[in-house]
Amino acid sequence: MSKYINPPALSTSFSESGKRAKKRFENILNTKAKKTGVIAFIIAVCTILVVGALVACNSSSNIGIIEGSDGPTSVFMSGNIEKQIKELYNSKIKYVGNNSGVSKIVRLLPFAEGVKVEKIELHTDSEPYGVTLYYIIDDYDKAVINGTVKSDGFYKNAILMFCLIDNVDSITINIKDEIKYKGAMYSYTYLREDFDNVFDKPLREYSTDFENFKTLFSAISMKNATNNIDRAVSDANLISNSNGYEKGECVAEGHIILGTSDKGENDEKKLIEAYVLATYGEYGFQNGNFIKISGSGIIPTRITFEVDISDRYTLIEYKPARDGSDYTPSIKEMFPEKYWDRALSANREDYEECKKQESAYAKAYLESIGRRAEIGSYADFEHKLPNMNVEASNSLLSSFAEYPYWIGTQEKVENGMRYVYEKQWEDKGNGDGIVTYKKYEFDSKKIVQETVIEIKNGEIIYLKGMPQRLY
């Protein structure tokens, strides 16, 4: 890839595992019945389907790029709903490489608001075959809730695409905010294998006849994908921590809900408190590995939501435990007594579960940019430090803060281009040596900045380049 998407403000995914996706979809349907019971329930309510406005979306291909339309296309606003569903059903195609076919399906997708298509990319060179849809926010009030893009419509549209495009394996959706947080990018990746584990048969089999397709359509229309406590907690965790840590390329979260309690309600809304063990991470490339470069360990957190009559969660308060000597008192103040022991002494299993959830976000992001890398925390990988005079090292760390402090590399995406910042060290003993700072383009390896410095008896001598403050 010659260019990379801007670092996403939020990067979420349902590709963490079929098991987790299944749990979430069961929450969406709000039923504990087995799959066959769910389908029977769907058929019974098929006639009361209510559908929102359709907007266009995008997708990418190694064969070519399909430019977006001038604006959103509203198909499901009025008229005979069954006829409109039929039009979508009749748009089904066998291959991702069918540019006009993919473009038509994207135009007909009904479950997203406030965005318009910029372009569609189709990934057809080799398996897994994929589609990437690029959106631009067109109406901020419709597209965004609680500071982040509504993801439920894209989740539903992905299900329909897996049903209607026979050989597509992955769908990535990127939404660019050019209205409020200019340049911010939201990214969602969905995998066919996850959804095939959720439904009672592979998604492509729902397009074998119209009644099957209508059943699927009804299932995903009845509830918003974010209308469950698990997803609401995920979103709250991401939103509330997004400005508190050193920025990486993608953000991730993990959580365990210990329990919830209702805190009053009326005819229109109610308050729910969730008692959560939460983690947060910012991930970036170091020495070619995708590493949690900043974030938190497990923090007991009370999250309060307002839930309206349509079962939509709105974040009211995100309150983590306080630090230091206030840690224990704050947990006992926020949490019911039955959760104190677990909150005060989260075990290894809790940590591993949250780490696994975070890794799923990182994995999804890597898939969205076409990269493979080991995923982990800083402690999981070796970072070799130069044997440099301490005073000289401290001075250079300040002057070359964008470079790694270890011997090796770290990557940054700047104005849509990926760069590598590399630090080399030639040791000459007794704290002396030659350090080289090199910045180059990831794809072309073209060097855009290079500084060579000799450390001799603690003195900093520039051999190539000039003192960083003069750039």
Could you explain the architecture of this structure?
With 471 residues, the protein is α+β, with helices and mostly antiparallel strands. Helix content is 28%, strand content 34%. The chain has three domains: 214 residues, no CATH class; 123 residues, no CATH class; 81 residues, no CATH class. Strands 1-8-7-4-3-2 form a six-stranded mixed β-sheet, sandwiched between helices. A hairpin with a 2-residue loop joins strand 14 and strand 15. The longest helix is centred in the C-terminal third of the chain and has 22 residues. The protein starts with 7 loop residues before the first strand and ends in a 7-residue tail after the last strand. The N terminus is likely disordered.
Instruction: Report the uncertain regions.
Output: 1-79
Number of helices: 13
Average of the residue pLDDT scores: 79
Strand order in the largest sheet = 1-8-7-4-3-2
Task: Please state roughly what percent of the residues sit in beta strands, choosing from under 5%, 5-15%, 15-25%, 25-35%, 35-45% or over 45%.
Answer: 25-35%
What's the count of strands?
A: 18
Structural class: alpha+beta
Q: Give the terminus-to-terminus CA distance.
A: 30 Å
Main sheet makeup: 6 strands, mixed
